[in-house]
Amino acid sequence: MILGRETPDVNDHYVFHNELGKGQFGTTYLVSHKTTKREAACKAIAKRKLVSAEDIEDVRREISILHHLGDHPNVVELIDAYEGSKHIYIVMELCKGGELFDRIVARGHYSEKDAATIFRTMMRTVAHCHNLGVIHRDLKPENFVLKTTEPDAAIKAIDFGLSTYFEPQQHFHDIVGSAYYVAPEVLKRNYSNEADIWSAGVILYILLAGVPPFWAQSEQAIFDEVLKGKYDLRSDPWDKISEGAKDVVRKMLVSDPKQRATAQEVLNHPWVREDGDASDAQLEDVVLSRMRKFAAMNKFKKMGMLAVAKTLSKEEIAGMKEVFQAFDSDRSGTVTISELMEGLRKKGVDKAASEVAELVQSMDMDGNGSLDYEEFIAATLSTAKMENEDNLARAFAYFDKDNSGYISRLEVQKVITDFGLDREFGDVNDFMEAADTNKDGKIDYDEFLAVMTAKGV
Fold first, then answer.
1. I need a surface site. Which of 213, 364, 396, 449 has the fewest CB within 10 A?
2. 233/295 same-domain check
3. What is the distance of C-alpha 285 from the center of its chain?
4. Are residues 211 and 303 in the same domain?
5. Do 150 and 242 lie in a common domain?
6. Keywords for this entry (predicted)?
7. Which residues lie below 8 Å from residue 325, measured CB to CB, with a gap of 6+?
8. For residues 146 and 338, what is the distance between their CA atoms, to the nearest angstrom?
9. Residue pair 165/61 in contact by the 8 Å Cβ criterion
10. CB–CB of 312/268 below 8 Å?
11. Whole-model pTM?
12. Side by side, which strands form the sheet with 26-33?
């Protein structure tokens, strides 16, 4: 017996409906109570998959932690737990509103004040956990959902499967969590509840900038960036974000956990406090901001961005593919001026037709009047992907067809032709002029890097 007690048969109390999702150990179903008709989510964990004493202890701990934290308005409520011959059933309140970040993206209108309000709720939840001697250990955007689809729906923290109890001065040594959000001391296998503050700091950074502070192409490379602990608070959009918001990030993303702010200290920060000094001004839409940056680039850099887009893996551009498909409402494989206008409007960004037309024209590299998939990806790549040296090296190799270590005039012409840009991009001399700074008739890797990483061109 795993729960250590006899329980009624879950089927005596609940009717099982459709499947809501699958996890490592089991499946979550929509259920309804036979008497009250209240809908709930029921996680059915297959006992045969609980092969070790540690697996069993993890299930027991998750149930006990949900009980322990359950009186908080922003923690998912545990209704009951049952044990059958083949499964453990954890019945929890049903959250129908989807992931919090999806709502933010769909809503579009978004200010620092909105970010502070959302973040304050998250930090109150973290403080509640810490005050009750619980580390979440897997704080990430996906683990904050909305109770309902209503505009003012409550935010709920979910998935306490990796959570554990802790005592003051107690340290843990197993690596858990998700790559982008994991604290450096977790990677060093010596951590406590301060690790949650780091993860929440990463979430705040994403709330404000739309991209994670530590990014790379593989999990190990992300870990390396986390251990370095260096992140950008200078380039766009940080130049438009208040010093107060940056100060909160700086206090949370501190590599030394002893120097990191506590949950309560974060809540007491002037920018986070209720009626604090976070601005009402709308943060610029991330996709639109990237498009504007691309529009300002010279032709050679735009073509380099197209080469970067062509050489990225499916996994790396999966998120932007979803964004492209959201704009491409008729599923034609291209985004027109009207589709871009409508897509931006849905995101809460109202722009004049002339401005959107100008933007499309500057991104429409083959001059056919609309944006195809690769043009869109090139124009909306994140700064992290644009400036990643591995990506740029692959883009250089895309030009350098003969692997000579140089890009010749003929190779530039070949890429222009491959991309179907002859009509729009014209004379190869323009490209050589832009990149061949030592005027030797070819572009070496350093010259290519200089063009691709130059600011404002």
1. 449
2. no
3. 15
4. no
5. yes
6. ATP-binding, Calcium, Kinase, Metal-binding, Nucleotide-binding, Repeat, Serine/threonine-protein kinase, Transferase
7. 331
8. 32
9. yes
10. no
11. 0.67
12. 14-22, 26-33, 39-46, 87-93, 78-83
Binding residues for ATP: 47
- Per-chain mean pLDDT for the chain: 86
Q: Residue 330 catalytic?
A: no
Comparing CA positions, the residue from 283, 129, 291 lying closest to residue 205 is 283
Are the C-beta atoms of 349 and 358 separated by less than 8 Å? Answer: no
Q: Dig out the tokens for 438 from the structure.
A: 């030592």
CA distances from 419 to 104, 142, 393 (A): 35, 37, 19
- The residues with which 41 forms a beta bridge, in sequence order, are 30, 92
Owning domain of residue 434: 286-453
The domain that contains 76 carries what CATH number?
3.30.200.20
d(CA 17, CA 50): 25
**Residue range 69-79: average pLDDT?**
88
Same domain, 89 and 104: no
Q: 179 in the Ramachandran plot: left (φ > 0), alpha (ψ -120 to 50) or beta?
A: alpha
Integer CA distances (angstroms), 166 to 64, 129, 171, in order: 14, 10, 8
- Alpha-carbon distance of 372 to 390, in angstroms, equals 25
Residue 315: predicted pLDDT: 45
Q: What is the domain-level CATH number for residue 329?
A: 1.10.238.10
What's the pLDDT score for residue 175?
93
Question: Does the pLDDT value for residue 282 go beyond 60?
Answer: no
Q: What are phi and psi of 14, to 5 degrees?
A: -125, 145
| Catalytic position from the list 138, 328, 372, 436 | 138
Note whether residue 276 is domain-resident.
no
Comparing C-alpha atoms, which of 154, 130, 155, 132 is closest to residue 142? 155
Q: What is the pLDDT of residue 221?
A: 93
Q: Count of domains in the chain?
A: 3
CA distance 418 to 408: 15
pLDDT digits (tens, 9 = 90+) for 23-51: 777 899 999 999 999 999 999 999 999 98
Whether residue 278 is contained in a domain is answered as no
Cα(first)–Cα(last) distance of the chain, in Å?
A: 66
pLDDT tens per residue across span 212-238: 999 888 899 999 999 999 999 998 889
Picking from 149, 125, 128, the residue whose alpha carbon sits closest to that of residue 139 is 125
Residue type, 114: D
